[in-house]
Amino acid sequence: MFLKDLVNYKSIETMKISEVLNCSFSAWYPQFKEYTIKSQIIPLPQEFVDYLLADQVVLPESSVALSAAHQDEDEDDNRYADNVVDWATEDIMTPVAEPPSFPEFESLLKIAIRRMGGKVFPKLNWSAPRDASWISFDRTLKCTCPSDVYLLLKSSDFISHDLTEPFKFCTDDENLKNETTVKYELVLRKWRELNPAYEFRCFVKGNTVIGISQRHTDMYYKFIPENRKEIEGDIQAFFYHIIKDNFPDKSYCFDVYRRCQGKLVLLDINPFGEVTDGLLYTWEELLTDKPSHTEEEGEVDEITDPLLRCVESETGVQSNPYGAYAVPKDFVDIAHGEDPTKLMQLLQLKVSQQTNHPDSSSDEEPESALGS
């Protein structure tokens, strides 16, 4: 392919606002409800969106109210500590703003969590706060109460991207980007213990699956390359019978969970573009449609590049893609002396969450969770 053709081809395959909107959870969930995990959708009030975007680490008032009783007990323990120097000055410990309150939204949140069996996985229209898993006690996105949800959403750069730059990689006119209104929603998905080895990301272009990638590239699973053809066949069949004629666009990505041979669950649908992680594929080859086989004189030669890409050995394991988020930017600010207040606020939230969290002492270690 000549450079001129490559440029023209890329311009055809670039993302559009409509394609991003079609991948919003509430846009596709009703159509594929039977083939995915049970979920509840709660519209986000504008005041809650403003709260998530505010540069303050403060949980809503109702989320920290339960810790008052424990504070009273602490006062009794400290009654003999009059001569101890309190290094936490009033200027640092005092929150920069009054805790917000969302009683109606929180009531809906509690009802939804209860309906989902008491354990949920949160996300917004497109993204889940996977980059914030470092702040949870079991390092997963399992939530059992509103404060768990608040803390994960508030700590995530992925969530901020959904709220501020959902159309960043779209090629539509800038005025159209600014004028397009997004109805933001909180999605609570019923928690499931998923084996990360069974998750796959599939790339569709022109209503054809052009690539499949192991979803978690930081692990080597021997059975995947050994069962490559069976996995490819199951995914192709699932796409052809369930998704192909029921999704409005011809190019997109979808994640599936292959529980066993012939039994797949749809996890998510994402835009076909660089906003979605290409995993073991690069977007350069996906956009230019690098062939996985060659044709000569009407015959297809032996496939040189398999449709399913996976980690082939222990030496091929990649670094955890969320490792860079283990130390949040706020801590970087603190380390440079730019904002010491952030540290005190974050530690207060962490202690408050641990005090109120019903599963803080659990030894359960979930294998994986849902989302993109």
What is the beta-strand fraction? 5-15%
H/E topology pattern: HHHEHHHHHEHHHEEEHHEEHEEEHH
What does the largest sheet look like?
5 strands, mixed
Q: Percentage of helical residues?
A: 25-40%
Supply Rg.
Answer: 23 Å
| Sheet with the most strands: spatial strand order | 7-6-4-5-10
- Record field, number of beta strands: 10
Through-space gap between termini = 32 Å
Brief characterization of the structure:
With 372 residues, the chain is an alpha+beta fold.
What does it look like?
This protein is α+β, with helices and mostly antiparallel strands and 372 residues long. The protein folds into two domains: 40-69 and 91-191 and 330-356, no CATH class; 195-316, D-amino Acid Aminotransferase, Chain A, domain 1 (2-Layer Sandwich). It is 37% helix and 14% strand. It is built from 16 helices and ten strands. The strands form three sheets. The protein has a five-stranded mixed beta sheet with strand order 7-6-4-5-10. A three-stranded antiparallel beta sheet has the order 1-3-2, covered by helices on one side. It has a two-stranded antiparallel ribbon with strand order 8-9. The chain is globular.
Describe this protein with a few key phrases:
single chain; 372 residues; alpha+beta; D-amino Acid Aminotransferase, Chain A, domain 1; 2 domains; 5-stranded mixed sheet; 3-stranded antiparallel sheet; 16 helices; 10 strands; 37% helix; disordered C terminus
